[in-house]
Amino acid sequence: MAATSFVAASLLRRAALGFALSHPLKNNKLSYQSNLISFPLTPRLTSSGLCHLAQAVKGDVADLLKDVGDKTVFEEVKRTLEMARRASSRREVLHTNFLTPPVMKESMLALTKLADLKAVSQGGYPQAERCRISVGHPDVLTSDPDIIAALSITGNFGFQPCSHGDFLGAILGTGIAREKVGDVILQGEKGAQVIIVPELIDFLMTSLDKVGNVPVSLTKIPLISIDYEPPSTKSFRTIEASARIDAIASAGFKISRSKLVDLIRNGDVRLNWTPVTKNGATLKTGDIVSVRGKGRLKIGEINTTRKGKFAIELIRYL
Predict the structure, then answer these.
(1) Integer CA distances (angstroms), 302 to 96, 182, 213, in order
(2) Which of 35, 46, 121, 251 could form a disulfide with 238 if both were Cys (CB 3.0 to 4.6 A apart)?
């Protein structure tokens, strides 16, 4: 029995070392709290430890993400899952940076398939689009970690209104990476509120002094003070011969089908925040279609008529 345990431990140490050395920490899109090279080279021979190590060495992440078609989303979610497994096996809590909505959605779906793991998402307010995910063993991740913060950016925007892009551009112009910044919430003449990682609060407060041509001042605010109003929407129904994006979106945005095809060709149409490349992409309930300069459209309930057509509920964001 002792000899068997020694051989097993030796094999596990080799597997762990190979895994660590083959995955150097080069990705700067995730905020890890520990170095990948510190993966335990002398694992405890417990059933839980063996399970997690075997999963990590086998690298069966692809099985969890077999339904993710977008390559970029696949790679982002894959990194999140690898981080989650390390967090669970080490019984510590690790965090992602701010994730885009499609990566966020697929990550949370995949994380629910992993045993002995808890995942918590935080964006600052209920309708936040960009969120961070904290993962860890349920015994360790017992409360929401303090991984997001909020700033108020104020200035005299009454005569020089600034757009979402103006605020975001000014923030990124200080050298902060996009994945360190969450949602930017416009406040009209008051300015804007921004969600950001806590460790960059002081830097941004001393580095950002102007948005567009408007001098600004920054103040840290509690998350409870985030002033967000749910977007106004208008719902209506349409009957189409197919559930293709060119048919439904043209009806939703009230533009010709040929015009929408041109917008797709120019890269101006996104489905669930991912650029659309094919006119024939099929839509389903819950999908979000956005068109540059036209706004955003959510696909509601889809039913089939007696004549084989599609009766579709469309929710237009105003």
Answers:
(1) 35, 32, 47
(2) 251
Verify that 86 and 185 share a domain, yes or no.
no
For residue 76, CA distances in Å to 20, 22, 253 come to 19, 18, 31
User: What does the buried/exposed string (b/e) look like for 249-285 if buried means 16 or more CB atoms within 10 Å of the residue's CB?
Assistant: bbbbbeeeeeebeebbeeebbbbbbbebeebebebee
For residue 292, give its domain range. Answer: 233-317
Cα–Cα–Cα angle for 161, 164, 165, rounded to 5 degrees: 105
CA 25 distance to own-chain centroid:
20
Which secondary-structure segment (H or E) carries 213? none
Tens digit of pLDDT for each residue in 273-293? 888 888 888 999 989 999 988
Residue entry with tokens 């994380």: 111
- Confidence tier at 18 by pLDDT (50, 70, 90): very low
What radius of gyration, in Å, describes the C-alpha atoms of the chain?
23
pLDDT score at 12: 44
Six-digit token string for 82: 């690898």
Q: How many CB atoms lie within 10 A of CB 150?
A: 23
CA contacts within 13 A on the Cβ side of 135: 28
